């Protein structure tokens, strides 16, 4: 019978082994992505399909979310801040909350819930049906053909969805707000541009790119964790969503910390 220390030691060894394997997987995907960009191949169509699913089909959800949050911030801001003599702060708050914080992270959450799950489920199904083995038997690298197009497609999709979230959240919400609290459009637009700094845009782009990479890596890596049974597929899909949320939040905190250094 194993002692407590032996069990803890085994768990530690397994955890370190899994972490090193995941780091090796990440490095291999990054290396294969460079090769993918240098020579266009058949997997390009897979990347386009990934962008359509992850980016285009998520536009309706992003529209509703960005419109609601943008309108809520403006309504609360123009109602409360003037009472404290800080009415002008509504614009920096809008830029900070929508562009730098909520835009990238909420977009990442939506993509994790939709596409992260789909990637883990699809690849898990390929493992169970021996499709991965079939690819390898024909000399096709599963990382280059299956993972890299999804990895690049997710990054491109999250970046563009984030841009869409910002535009829709900052400008679209104006037309909702004006019904309740009229604000001159030129004044609103001018004050937004006045408070939008290059570092805000860079931070937003960096976050969305990193989040896209995390979602794809976690989703595809989780799919390969399926061994032989179809009952494992929903389990790894659920774990992929949980891990995707956690890693995105950690990355968000780290990038925000660097921003303020």
Automatic annotation (TrEMBL):
The chain crosses the membrane at residues 12-30, 51-77, 89-111, 201-224, 244-260. Keywords: Membrane, Transmembrane, Transmembrane helix. Pfam families: MlaE. The keyword Transmembrane helix applies. It comes from the Bacteria. The keyword Transmembrane applies. This is ABC transporter permease.
